[in-house]
Amino acid sequence: MYLLLPCFPTITVIVSPHSLSNSVIDYFGIDYFRYIVKDRIMKRIYTTIALLAPLLILGACATVEPEAPVIVIAPPIVQQCIPINTLRKVTIPAVTKSGYSIVSIESEDEMYYDTKTEKWVTLKIPPIERKEPWTKIVTPEQVIYVDQNNKEVTDICELKGETP
Length: 164
What we know:
Elements: E1 3-6, E2 12-15, H1 22-28, H2 30-60, E3 82-83, E4 88-92, E5 95-105, E6 110-114, E7 119-123, E8 128-139, E9 142-146, E10 152-153, E11 156-157
Parallel strand pairs: 3-11
Antiparallel strand pairs: 1-2, 4-9, 5-8, 6-7, 9-10
């Protein structure tokens, strides 16, 4: 490491710390030498930045011709869906399965005391049964739209307020 030693205001001598005698370091102090070195290094850094900054800024400016605007012509819109007012609405009824189920309610036997025979008598009560109808929907009802050839159409253009 080298130290910058100011001898006169205009002359600076670069000295190695090994070549300095203890009397010079004691007279000026080592902190003084460190301050001078830091000050000189910072001045060089700032000077370099000040010289290079305008070159970098001006070098970054390059004239570039603007690109010609690209004109995009949209293709004509082809209607691929079929309007709903040209179709016929067909309702396919739901497929159901029907049957009957027998509901049986078991009842407990009743016991009572017969005073003539002086015994407990058990009465067997038959279960309560009833027949109930049931219906199960296998396939729900469907609404489809067909064209003039009775073919199902799925790509339908909807009118405002109307749902297919």
